[in-house]
Amino acid sequence: MSSTRDWLLTDAPSSRRQAAWGRRYRRWLQFRTNGLAMFGLTVAVILILGAVFAPLLAPQNPGAQNLAMRLAPPSAQHWLGTDELGRDLFSRLLYGGRVTLGMVVAVVILVAPIGLLVGSVAGYAGGWADRVLMRVTDVFLAVPQLILALAFVSALKPGITSAVIAIALTAWPPYARQARADTLTIRHSDFIAAARLTGASGTRIVLHHIIPLCLSSMIVRMTLSMSGIILTAAGLGFLGMGAQPPMPEWGTMIATSRAFILAQWWVPAIPGIAIFVASLAFNLLGDGLRDVLDPRQR
Amino acid sequence: MRRIKSLSETLSSVLVTLFGLAVVTFMIGRVVPIDPTIAIVGDHAPPDVVAAARLQLGLDKPLPVQFLIYVQHLLHGDLGRSVMSSHPVTQDIAQYFPATVELATTAIIIAMLIGIPLGVLAAARQGSRFDQLVRVISLGGQSVPVFVLGLVALLVFYVKLGWAPGTGQQDVLFDGTVPRVTGMLVVDAALNGDWDATSDALAHLALPALVLAFFSLSTITRMTRAFMLDALGGEYIVTARAKGLSGTRILWRHGFGNIAVPLITVLALAYAGLLEGAVLTEVIFSWPGIGQYLTVSLLNADMNAVLGATLVIGAVYVGLNMLADLAYRLFDPRVR
Amino acid sequence: MLVRMDNLRVGFRTPQGVSEAVRGVSLTVGQEKLGIVGESGSGKSLTARSILRLLPGSATVTADKLEFDGIDVLSAREGALRRIRGKRAGLIMQDPKYSLNPVMTAGAQIAEAWRAHKGGSRRQATKAAIDLLAQVRIRDPARVAGLYPHELSGGMGQRVMIAMMLAPDPELLIADEPTSALDATVQADILRLIEDLVAKRGMGLMLISHDLPLVSHFCDRVLVMYAGRVVEEVKAADLHRAKHPYTRGLLECLPSLVKPKPQLSVLKRDPAWSAPQ
């Protein structure tokens, strides 16, 4: 154990691989000292595991109705109580995590590469391409994300797929902005000039030199934007424009049980807490990652 | 001369953005699966009526021509007719928008008055307990869904404690007693000299405004803190200390003095972000603003209304950004 | 003596432990011109700034003695420190582009320093600021007072900085590389200005620089710092008799017009110079 540690922490690494792992390990050591970020990481991992293994963990079928047991308070049988149709809230919460996190992952996978590519191309090419691409991002940035997403969903059809597409369409501009800003700072550095002198093509420079250097700030932005996506997805669900009932999506769950807030407040409150906790976890995690990966952005 | 040039650049970029916005709303309107004619003439209209309506709407023409017509209408302030209210959308928006402005403006003022000092003090004591606390509060604020916060606020302050009046803009008692001038109820009631109605309107405004304020408080606090840290790291702060100035003066005159103008941009952004929060808050508090209008139109697939509201919100955002940019040019000696 | 410093140590906390940047410096400054020479990272700036306790928050400072005119700087309260800073000791920094506040006019920044220690009305302060600008030989002081730092040239900016630090009539002027960021032609002007002002006002001067010939030409006494320690202290006139190999090495690296050498020698560093004592 200690020999691995020494290998990682040595001041004189003998290979590039060792140096790279050493750097990662040092970052991890730094990250570990941040209690809030570790809390965020732990919660995020629990949420992801809960979502992945929901079919194994859920005590009951999330769709099974039991009208005799409507709006039951938390008990041994129903850990978090039941909703207005007598469905087990804990099971619905677990399955809801699948929906929410699934949407988040889908959006990020769609958006991050597009944003990265648009931004780095705009930043590296400059001139016309830059101006056109940045105007396009301006247009998309000009309307608050939720409102633009609402307009898109209304044109498509309310549902998860439309919600993912709509959020993706509205979520890429900040990535492009960030990648462009990073590219602009990297572009004028000497090693890019050196690469150009050795005859590297523009494509090669963007793919091999610029994009790898944008990655760490991209990871930070991705983590931080995840909480925003969770909130937008929940907002869409709450307004009836995202996941449709009876699908157990957290925002939709609040919308359908909103009327019971006076008497059975825990029914809408539990998915509300879930959204808050998930969003907070990614925010804390992203904040901690930023300290480690991208200190100049603090 | 240089100022005029950069000013015209700002204006042209604003125009390009607005044009792009029109393209986006137009495109959304075209990909809609519901045939807009059906929405007007109804599901069971005879084919010749449908065809006539199509002709009247210009839907038989090629897309670019349709777009030109769309833009022409926009320039005349014509956003089409709302199917639901059967009024022109422009008229509907004029009806609903002031309530949103009232709500969002109150919220941003509250958020500013709390957020800026919090951010400045957190930066001044970077790493302290206070800084940590501010960090947690603002991260928490960023993580709370505004509709959950609204529901909780209603539950606690209206249902349990009874401190706040219920939802809506005013008590039924005052319904229709306040003549409409600005559309902002608090202002109108005050203009009318009706103090009971004013205080009632204020009481109704307080809770949704606070919920919305919390929504943007975190952004404002975090940005203020980040800007301040940057400013406080400057060499001119060492100079100010070497001059023997007091801590307060260094912090506010030299630190904050350097970020005040850039902060205007943040505030403009935050205000636009509030319009987003306003949609959800208005639904929770039954606030008769543009967010309420937008969601009701959405549920009724009233596309003209949805796109009109989207366009107006986008235009407001662009306008705010332009104002921030102008303020920057006017007040910041570095740009001037 | 204005400044007495005994065994000053300045450290920075890092994840790998405390790293000491100043390791036991002792010195005194009176009404004289003291030069401190050293390369980047030798601790000369930190040493000078500790006198006013103007170090970054992450630094830890200890000393057996650190006094300004008998006042213990390390234990002094913020209020007592503020009566030293600016009022009794001024600090001129390297680059006016960064050390002047970009959103305040030159006049306002000078007037602020004047008012902070002398009180008086805004109008009096503005008048004093213009007067001070004239003293640092700015030709059109009333106009320059209304300019923002980015509208000033480097030399003008440094004059503004000097005027600002002279405003409360200090007894000691600490100049931290005051000319390194300036053009060569302006450097001489600024140094001559500082020299005149110091002579006229009878101030003590602490000049920090990496330029050994310049300092020896300009000061009465020279301290040579290396790796956080003073390795040599000589009268400026006796510099050629310096004993420490580092100082000797530096002197030999200089090109000479009188005795040109075919090849300049290169400084060879001995780890023993920075070894703990």
Q: How does this structure look, described?
A:
Chain A: Keywords: Cell membrane, Membrane, Peptide transport, Protein transport, Transmembrane, Transmembrane helix, Transport. Chain A: The chain crosses the membrane at residues 36-58, 99-125, 146-171, 223-243, 263-286. The complex is a heterotrimer of chains A (298), B (336) and C (277). Chain A has helices at 2-9, 16-32, 35-52, 54-57, 89-125, 127-141, 145-155, 160-187, 190-197, 202-238, 250-257, 266-293. Chain A is mainly α and 298 residues long. Chain A has a single domain (40-297), classed as MetI-like (MetI-like fold, Orthogonal Bundle), CATH 1.10.3720.10. With 336 residues, chain B is mostly helical. Chain B has a single domain (96-331), classed as MetI-like fold (Orthogonal Bundle), CATH 1.10.3720.10. The N and C termini of chain B lie close together (12 Å). The mean pLDDT of chain B is 85. Chain C has a domain at 99-169. In chain C, strand 1 (3-14) and strand 2 form a beta hairpin. The interface between A and B is large, with 45 and 53 residues.
Task: List the defining traits of the structure above.
heterotrimer, A: 298 residues, mainly alpha, MetI-like fold, 12 helices, flat, B: 336 residues, 13 helices, 0% strand, globular, ABC transporter permease (chain A), cell membrane (chain A), transmembrane (chain A)
